[in-house]
Design brief:
27% of the residues lie in helices and 37% in strands. The chain is α+β, with helices and mostly antiparallel strands and 377 residues long. Keywords: Signal.
Amino acid sequence: MRTSLYFSLLLLLAACGGTTEEVAVDPPVRAIRADRVTISDGTSVQTFNGVAEAAGRTPLSFRVAGTLRSLPVNLGQRVNRGQLIATLDPADLQVQQSLAAAQRQASQAQVESAETQLIAARAAYDRTSRLYENNSVSLSQFEQVRSEFQSAQAQVEAARSQLEASGAQARAAGNQVAYTRLTAPFSGVITEKHVEENEYAGSGKAIVTLSTEENPEVEVNVPEDFVGRLSSGQRVEVTFSSIPGRTFPGTISEVAYAAAGSPSYPVTVSVSDQTEAIRPGMAATVRFHLGESTGPRDSLIVAPIASVSEGPDGRFVFRLEPGARDDQYVARRVPVDIGDYTTAGFVIREGLRPGDLVATAGLNQLIDGMPVRLLTQ
């Protein structure tokens, strides 16, 4: 009896030890952020960075070469139209001017001498002509006097031509001396100095850069997707990081037709407000309001920028579909065809519908079919 009981206990223990209980483990639910796909009317605000420039920016140079004698201006100095900017040493040019003036005087003396000879030759010709008509002189004598008169006329013409040429040389030499003085063609500010005193400056070498203070401009580079939506006269808003709290109205003055080998197109914006606070070289931000003046537009489906990713097979989003529980979703990888970029997001041509919920954070940890929940904060 006791043996039988012991055997029964052994069987019971063996049965209990061989049984394994299966415990159901729920898959992990990742917390993510999400946003809705919306509808846009096609208007958007695009922001691009640029640099302020003066509307008139002119490098000033001499028309002649020489050693820079004086440069009586400083960086940032305001100058008036006609004010002296720099001078060259005029000594060599003054020598040439003196030689040209002496040559002109010599030519003038030759003209006067030739004209005196012409007067005498004309008087002899007139007298001989009357005598020849009365048969008082021979034909050979008349022809000789006529030839001398014609020669005197030719000498006067040659002397006058020489005088004109020497006069032109004298005027050119005088201009060369005058070109050793460089003056401001308009009122403005000296924004750059390229040489120093006693330095040799070749003809055409920039001495200083003179910039206007009125109508500052900002140049930005716009990608090819947007340049077609811009036109001259379009209004924009300009801000400067160095002038906080102020927004300046602006107008597009130029839109480049060609990109000149670059993927972006330069656009020039004229700033309307006049203020000395805006200086060339300042960093600027230009806000373009696109689509507002083009009339009614078709509705566009727009997805949040952060929701779009790109893989080997193209761009995609993770659309969130209802899950097994009310507070859970299932992430589905959906390929999308995107269009223009706007501040509201990417225009979706195909793949999503308005109101779709898409993941906007943690996309690199998501896989197709993964259960997720939304972060409350």
